[in-house]
Amino acid sequence: MNLNIFYHFGxxxxxxxxxxxxxxxxxxxxxxxxxxxxxxxxxSLVIVGLISLFIGAVTAVQFSYxxxxxxxxxxxxxxIVRDSTIIELAPTITCLVLAGxxxxxxxxxxxxxxxxxxxxxxxxxxxxxxSYLFLPRLIAAxxxxxxxxxxxxxxxxxxxxxxxxxTGILSDADFVLxxxxxxxxYNVFIMYVKAFVFAFLLTSVSCYQGYFVxxxxxxxxxxxxxxxxxxxxxxxxxxxxxxxLLT
Amino acid sequence: MIRADKIKKSFGSAEVLKGISVELEQxxxxxxxxxxxxxxxxxxxILVGLFMPTVGDVWYGDTNICQLNKKELKAIRxxxxxxxxxxxxxxSMTVEENVRFPLDMFSNMTRGEKxxxxxxxxxxxxxxxxxxxxxxxxxxxxxxxVGIARAIVLNPKYLFCDEPNSGLDPKTSITIDExxxxxxxxxxxxxxxxxxxxxxxxxxxxKIVFLHLGELAWIGSKDEVLESDNELLQxxxxxxxxxxxxxxAALNR
Lengths: 247, 253
What we know:
The structure holds 2 protein chains of 2 kinds. Chain A is mostly helical. Chain A has helices at about 5-20, 25-65, 75-115, 120-125, 130-165, 170-180, 185-210, 215-245. Chain A has one domain (about 25-245). In chain A, about 85% of the residues lie in helices and about 0% in strands. Chain B folds into 2 domains: about 1-80 and about 160-170 and about 185-253, Rossmann fold (3-Layer(aba) Sandwich), CATH 3.40.50; about 90-155, no CATH class. Helix content of chain B is about 40%, strand content about 25%. Chain B is built from 10 helices and 10 strands. Chain B has a 6-stranded mixed β-sheet with strand order 6-7-8-3-9-10. Chain B has a 4-stranded antiparallel β-sheet with strand order 2-1-4-5, with helices on one face. In chain B, strand 7 (about 160), helix 6 and strand 8 form a beta-alpha-beta unit. In chain B, helix 3 (about 95-105) crosses helix 4 (about 110-125). Chain B starts with a strand and ends with a helix. In chain B, about 40% of the residues are buried. Classes of the chains: A mainly alpha, B alpha/beta.
């Protein structure tokens, strides 16, 4: 693994610059963007839904255990599930999962195109491949990932409800009271900031890894793994940075 | 016409091309031949503009493509068609969509006009009726023909073919050679073919450029191959005992 971070960062910036140009044909870019939206959005609904449901449920059960013998009112479970889901779990866990699912797929798809000379073929036709392969994916990710994160937040709260109300940990009224207490709209803003930043990170890192892949199937596998690993590291680092700056 | 002028190319300390100058003519099949490692693919990629030479220039007519900016290079690439060794067909698209891709990207044609052009190109490569099939559903020879149809769909002035016969049986190889040759003559385009196939050399080699260890070792036509006293060329072309016997028989006749 080449750890020359400045070399990679410089080459990454050049790729981004090269991709932010006027498309050769808007319709083709539009079609590709729609295809990517479908792949990223619809293709990730089930996994994002399942993970959010269980994370909301685990948060509720865990906090009911923590609050068990304390003087903190039990309806706080609803409040804690809501805020931890909105601020942290929905954007971060969803994007970590998407880095694994969508990011590795992007790196493998673009890397495969590089190895099978598809990218050379497009270059010779006169297509700006950096733009055609990166821009639709980025736009699709910037639209769909915040929507997936919103959905994850709702499902997470739902998961908390399902884990605590039917099981008798607290009443329906208490949970709803908790969910409606101390609501800060600013937290939703933080969630969307995270969603946009993470969407950019996971898409650009994955496209970069795929676009510059060399060699054979082993290198393609490495590129796919690197896409996930570097996306995850950057997501966690920027999660910390955003928390530091916005709270 | 394409002119390569004193082309040198190095990768690190390894000099792959050592000053090649050659003129590739319009309306002719210009074949680049040579042993593995001779620098054929690098030379072809320089000619097509995928690599920039370390030293030297490539001229398309009066335009030096090594001096062009990205925008100008993109514009000139619309005059270029290329058939890749591995075909480079997009797996997720049908035959028809593959051939239509350059038109969708760059032409202002209506949907009907595009369809007409795609049908014409597929007819030219005798692939009519396979429009809706995916590359994975057709044979290697058919994939080559789809690659050719895609390469010519924008009416290129320059056609490049990288190992068009690789992985094909002799009969299909001849069909592909004839097809490329017919397209070259009919459209009066400059065709550059990178090949190992000796049958192609003797059948369609209007101009043959023989590279050896990154240097230009011989230039001539298919008719001049037999009479050439260039030992490197003779060793390369008539490498097998069977071909040596054929050559001797031809020369004794």
